[in-house]
Amino acid sequence: MYNPYNVERLNINFKTLEEFKNFQSYGAQELSMEEDLKANIIENDSESPFYGIYFGGKLVARMSLYKISQKFDRYFEPPQDYLELWKLEVLPDYRGKGYGRALVDFAKSFNLPIKTNGRNNSHDFWDKMGFEPATYNTERDRGENPFVWFPKGVSEQTL
Amino acid sequence: MYNPYNVERLNINFKTLEEFKNFQSYGAQELSMEEDLKANIIENDSESPFYGIYFGGKLVARMSLYKISQKFDRYFEPPQDYLELWKLEVLPDYRGKGYGRALVDFAKSFNLPIKTNGRNNSHDFWDKMGFEPATYNTERDRGENPFVWFPKGVSEQTL
């Protein structure tokens, strides 16, 4: 499908981490990256699980993608490697312009199932993105709002 | 310690579920409870993982507590049963009056370690509650902001 935006994998350096501070979901993950960078535990410009879109040199949207191994798959049938998507966020002034969809489309392009924890009131968004709410399971989901996307031939795992 | 509020375990019935709709974090967990209640899969007034505080007959604060078994403990040393706390929320008009602290104190009264995923900008609150940020581990924490509380004799697990 046509994607009007250029989704980039974000390398970790102090400039990227500074841009991350504009996002509400800035948290333990970013603080840990900053510490590792300062302590030279990770190299400048090392690869990160973050992908983003720049507009006029400014990072305006981002998400994190993390591959979960088949042996930990409790969502999909047949069990397989899948992507966990988190921290999808578009800066307030840039919402409603398709940045979120561009990131989600990019995630889908790996053709692996995707699982995300929907934020409050995000149901309509995930529905528009072709995601479905997973059947809630307390032990697995622990208060999360799991939404899943199935590539062709994949269905929900029955727990 | 003195707790000025009466924290109650919330039984699941249609009235409680209706009150839950006032909370932002209403999601898959509550929808699933409602379906189970309608389908008579769970009984009316069955026990829930939710605890709350009423003011004038209205549920104004709530949280969910879920016991995780020692064999899944990846946070505490020595490994042990611990509580996962989620969906701590006080309705907007009732904030700043100690309801949140009352719920957290109640959770601590079980004298088990506690782990929670801090919402955006909740660092100061958890700090005041005596929680510490856990050392971030991508595989375990996957974008979460884990905060932990240690009862006496318990420390952080080194991964």
First-residue to last-residue Cα separation of chain A = 33 Å
Quick one: how many beta strands of chain A? 9
Output the structural class of chain A: alpha+beta
CATH architecture of chain A: 3-Layer(aba) Sandwich
Number of folding domains of chain A?
1
Radius of gyration of chain A: 16 Å
**Largest interface, counted with CB-CB under 8 A?**
A-B, 28 and 28 residues
Q: How is the main sheet of chain A built? A: 7 strands, mixed
Number of helices of chain A: 5
CATH topology of chain A: Aminopeptidase
Give the uncertain stretches of chain A in residue-range form.
none
Strand order of the largest sheet of chain A: 1-2-3-5-6-8-7
Task: Give a short overview.
Chains A, B: Its EC number is 2.3.1.-. Chains A, B: It is an enzyme of class 2 (transferase). 2 copies of one chain form a homodimer. Chain A is an alpha+beta fold.
How does this model look, in words?
2 copies of one chain form a homodimer. Chain A is built from 5 helices and 9 strands; from the N terminus they run E-H-H-E-E-E-E-H-E-H-E-H-E-E. Chain A is of the alpha+beta class. Chain A has one domain: Gcn5-related N-acetyltransferase (GNAT) (Aminopeptidase, 3-Layer(aba) Sandwich), CATH 3.40.630. In chain A, the strands form 2 sheets. Chain A has a 7-stranded mixed sheet with strand order 1-2-3-5-6-8-7. Chain A has a two-stranded antiparallel sheet with strand order 4-9. Chain A is globular and about 45 Å long. Chain A starts with 6 loop residues before the first strand and ends with a strand.
